[in-house]
Amino acid sequence: MKKSNIKAWLYLLPALVFLGVFMIYPLFDVVVYSFEEGYNSASQSFFGTGLYNFSYVLHDPYFLQAVKNTFILVIITVPVSTGLSLLISLALSSIRKLKDLFQTLYFLPYVTNTLAVGLVFMILFKKTAYSDGLINLLINIFGGQSVDFIEGPYWAKMLVLCIYTIWIVMPFKILILTSSLASVNQDYYKVARVDATPKWRVFSKITLPMISPMLFYLIITGFIGAFKAYSDAVALFGVNLNAQGMNTIVGYVLDMLYGNSGGYPSYASAAALILFAIVLTVTVINLLVSKKKVYY
Amino acid sequence: MKIVLEHLTKIYPNRNRKIKDEKIAVNDFTFEIPDGKLIGLLGPSGCGKSTTLNLICGLEEATSGKIFFGEDDVTKAPPENRGVGMVFQNYALYPHMTVEQNIMFPLGNLKGEAKLSKEQMKAKALEVAKLVQIDEYMDRKPAELSGGQQQRVAIARALVKLPRVLLLDEPLSNLDARLRLQTREEIRRIQRETQITTIFVTHDQEEAMSISDMIVVMETGIVQQIGKPQDVYDDPKNLFVAKFLGTPPINVFDAEVKDEKLYIGESAVLDVKGVADQPVFAGIRPEGFILADDGVFECKLSSVEVMGRDTSVVSKHNALLGTEIRSIIPAENKVDTSSPLVRFNLKPAKVHIFNKETTERIYFK
Question: Rounded to an integer, what distance in angstroms lies between the CA atom of residue B332 and that of residue A32?
């Protein structure tokens, strides 16, 4: 018995070593850094320990802006993208003709490079000296004023970022939802039909509960993913996000490490831990809600 | 509610449209189901019995023919307007709802004047739950019930809106043997109490025979015979029906009629008056054998299985189609197991002969 235990650990050792070096140790290190004041990575020295880093980050207007941006992004994109995906999946599962074609089309954004998509969005939304962009053209047709979506007012930039994020996260959700819709036993629908159940009641009382586990999975991962947003903002607004006022929390962490004003791993660690605390709280709330609502 | 099927036909086109080959699932089914009866649709898998049920239910649309509920022509009516209650093979209970919610679900669909208050729904649900005897488990989820209890919930859900017709698709196939016996009695009792015309589908002849008022035997979409279970058993129209009904199954032999006598192998075993000389299939029911030392029918004895009430004699014969002859004789008759041979006389009523080409029954006096 004991011998085989040792053997088992021996087999696990390579994986454990890698996990330890590349996951556990860095995680641990982040916590340590966040409490070390004035830490310098070049000289590996620091003045003292305490909560100053957290205090600094929480009073940094850039960080507060990033938190605000991230929260707006999360609150708008998660419900909208999940809801839209559900609608599209329902539509997809109720058509026969061209179903495969539409499924492929909806999945395309998933395999497209983020930055390439960003470029397309720039063409659609950007206003330059020579052209107002496609969207502005449409706005003009309907009698509106051109808006600079990329370098203009905050709400316009946030709108583009939200649309972009929704567009990029939907394919995966549609994929998951169409397959979970397809896995609902058709007999439930037949029984409901024989019992003359109205369409809306079928959806709310049968379909929705049946796919609720998948729906909650998508909502939880959607929240986590949206809280970690960064590359989408970069693709649209470039790397200098603070100047644009479009930074996200992850963007702030990165700036603190490597940006023009960077070189502060302690601040970055503190910000990362704050983000961790936020995500943890939201996920716990999600799980508590889902326990009540989800049928397994 | 009386149900009339008139030349009901369902044809499925081939999935590959280039091939013209189509499958006739139900072929020209004409039958009048009397009000308040329990009807068993019986046949091997793929015989079209479930399709027939779906046609009556409205989940499938008939290719041609008509369906009447009473005087209403419901052939084109969607299932929701037919007023049928359906119990699926897997029960299809909503797993996220309690038993009570499941039973109340159809009532929640009522609109306009028929709309019920929550209390009325609860009262009605309780009433049917009592009828099927699951009122103790109203707050449970389906996963917490046994197969038989789930079956009852499904029946209750189908009954709660007082359907004109109750349809059961393989109602007992998901139950173990003991529960099956119990549940089929239960179905019979519920049907008697509610007096709702009920049609159920099964491939198990014993099940159909035991509880149905009438059985319909089907094969490859064609109705083979309709009648009271005992009549169909005693008087099968063709070889298929004879083989399909009865356990142990009928013993079928290659035989011949010569000079109004039935020959199996070399020996004449029975007088068959009024039958022309021809090769035939002879079917002998297991209970059609009488053990006799001077019997006309000689078989090679394989084994004797004592079952208490009666004895099952297993023997062989060269003309037999199949592996062994099973005959059931009263337990008082002792078989001489030391002898390699066993001799029988035959009961004429238990011997059926069939045309070799058409497999239709040939009647004799």
Answer: 93
**Is the pTM above the cut of 0.90?**
no
Burial of B211 per CB tally in 10 Å (0-12, 13-18, 19+): buried
CATH number of B3-243: 3.40.50.300
> CA-nearest residue of chain A to B81?
A196
Q: How many helices (H) and strands (E) does chain B have?
A: 8, 22
Q: Is the predicted ipTM greater than 0.90, yes or no?
A: no
| A49-100+161-293 under CATH 1.10.3720.10, yes or no | yes
Question: Is A199 part of the contact surface with chain B (CB cutoff 8 Å)?
Answer: no
| Angle at A168 (CA atoms; ends A247, A256), nearest 5 degrees | 20
Look at the block and give the residue holding tokens 């000296």. Answer: A129
Amino acid identity of residue B315, one-letter, is S
Domain ranges within chain A, ordered by starting residue: 49-100+161-293
pLDDT per position as a tens digit, B41-94? 998 888 888 889 999 998 888 888 899 998 889 888 888 888 899 998 888 999
Domains of chain B, residue spans: 3-243, 248-362
Question: A19 falls in which pLDDT band (50, 70, 90)?
Answer: very high
Q: Is A152 on the interface with B (CB under 8 A)?
A: no
Question: Closest residue of B to A294, CA-based?
Answer: B96
